[in-house]
Amino acid sequence: LALLGQPAIAVVGSRNPTPVGCESAMRFAGAIGDHRVTVVSGLALGIDSVAHRGALDTAGSTIAVCATGLDMVYPRCHRNLAREIKESGLILSEFPPGTGVRRHHFPQRNRLISGLSLGTLIVEAGLGSGSLITAGFAADQGREVFALPGSVNSPLSRGPHQLIRDGACLVETPSQILEALCLAKVEKTGHDPQVDKPARDGGILDFVDFAPTPINKIAQRSGLTIAKISAMLIRVELQGLVKTCAGGYIRLR
After folding, report:
1. Mean predicted lDDT score pLDDT of the chain
2. Is residue 236 part of a domain?
């Protein structure tokens, strides 16, 4: 679980990408992984699986967030990929074992993908793509949203272009994302006491209001990095202690 305390960037997009989109996702995820920053995605067909593979191929770390129980890998063709991720990364799910594919679980899962990450990159997405839901969650959580532009003739460029019009950061190279997030190359660590001690997760509640609280304000109050705060907030959210909202997080009890 030490990975949850490390800087991470989500890479998501279409389940039916073009070859150019796959190449871009592989290149960005590989560069992020080579920078010792964790790549987060959803183990889905298309851009998600390419992003996981890009990180693995550079010996980087990757986290897969599932919309099913951990024993019900979906799609089934990604069982080998899931095993590889488990060996060097992390597979997460908020759903109990035995939970199969349910349509409404996918957008629910997307908030964890964005919440675990300092920023979310969208690589090819139609206007109805679930990756735009992930981008929306990222914005609501106070995270950065990055979009890779594409051909004006491609339907898969419409999602990223809409995000850019709405204020997402247009990026053309992986270094632009890393620089925007002020991520110097970090060394992997095997132990992070702030992540490993569950008792400290509850302490983050002291810095969350019963009204929408931006993650930057939580960071200022606690003195912790946004990467550590993100991991802690995800865990207390799964415990029903806070919830994501427009503008950040709300404490529930």
Report:
1. 90
2. yes
Domain for residue 187, yes or no? no
pLDDT in tens, 215-242: 889 989 988 888 788 878 888 887 888 9
Q: Are residues 144 and 36 in the same domain?
A: yes
Question: 90-92 and 119-123 as β-strands: parallel, antiparallel, unpaired?
Answer: unpaired
**Contact yes or no for 64/112 (Cβ under 8 A):** no
SS3 123: strand
* Nearest residue to 141 (alpha-carbon basis) of 250, 248, 8: 248
Read off the pLDDT of each residue in 46-59 and give the average, rounded to a whole number.
Answer: 96
In this predicted structure, what is the pLDDT of residue 196?
A: 38
Please indicate, yes or no, whether the overall pTM of this predicted structure exceeds 0.70: yes
Q: Which of 61, 31, 27 is nearest to 187 (CA)?
A: 61
**What distance in Å separates the CA atoms of residue 170 and residue 140, rounded to the nearest whole number?**
19
Assigned domain for 21 exists: yes
What pLDDT digit, counting tens, does each position of 98-111 carry?
A: 999 999 999 999 99
How many CB atoms within 10 Å of residue 104? 8
Give the pair of three-digit tokens for residue 36: 């010792």
Residue 70 DSSP symbol:
T
CA–CA distances in Å: residue 76 to residues 36, 80, 100, 148: 29, 9, 11, 29
